[in-house]
Amino acid sequence: MYYKKNLSIYDSTFPLVWICVITWWVDRLLVELGHRSTDTLVCIHNNLQYIHYHQYTTSALVCMQIGKSIAKRRQEFVRESKLTNSVTSQCALFCISILQSVLVLAWSSIFMSLLDVSPWLCVDYVLENRALLSFGSLLCILCVLPVEAILWDWFIEKGLPMI
Predict the structure, then answer these.
(1) Is there a smaller number of Cβ atoms within 10 Å at the N or the C end of the chain?
(2) Rg (alpha carbons) of the chain, rounded to whole number
(3) pLDDT digits over 48-92, tens only?
(4) C-alpha 162: how far from chain center
(5) What predicted TM-score, i.e. pTM, was given to this entire model?
């Protein structure tokens, strides 16, 4: 299925990760329009104002996106196993959950390290290694998607009743 249609970016990031990105841009826009609080820490790199707020919010929303992505993918697996009369194993659901978590974290890492409005660029390690982080995340995505497809088919076939 062409690696889950466009490398699974939609399922791994929409809507919660995109909410983070939009709030980063809104913060940057407000700073550009003159909204600046004098008592907040300002990041020199991207001119964001509420850095810690964005980092906490991003962390929480990425965790919620992981939960949403896992729930959706598990529901798809259970539905497909019911359609094929395959037995759903807990091991299959656990593997799908781990792989979905990796996908969401990888796509989120790409956004956090490549977008100039990211509050994570205020962390020196992320700023200095942004190309390496993005490349590693892309490799994770390119490895996880075929592994998930192979495991998905294997667990469906393994659960089929013997005739």
Answers:
(1) C
(2) 19
(3) 778 888 999 999 999 999 999 999 999 999 999 999 999 999 999
(4) 38
(5) 0.91
Secondary structure in 3-state letters for the chain: CHHHHHHCHHHHHCCHHHHHHHHHHHHHHHHHCCCCCCCCCCCCCCCCCCHHHHHHHHHHHHHHHHHHHHHHHHHHHHHHHHHCCCCCCHHHHHHHHHHHHHHHHHHHHHHHHHCCCCHHHHCHHHHHCHHHHHHHHHHHHHHHHHHHHHHHHHHHHHCCCCC
- Count CB atoms within 10 A of the CB of residue 156: 18
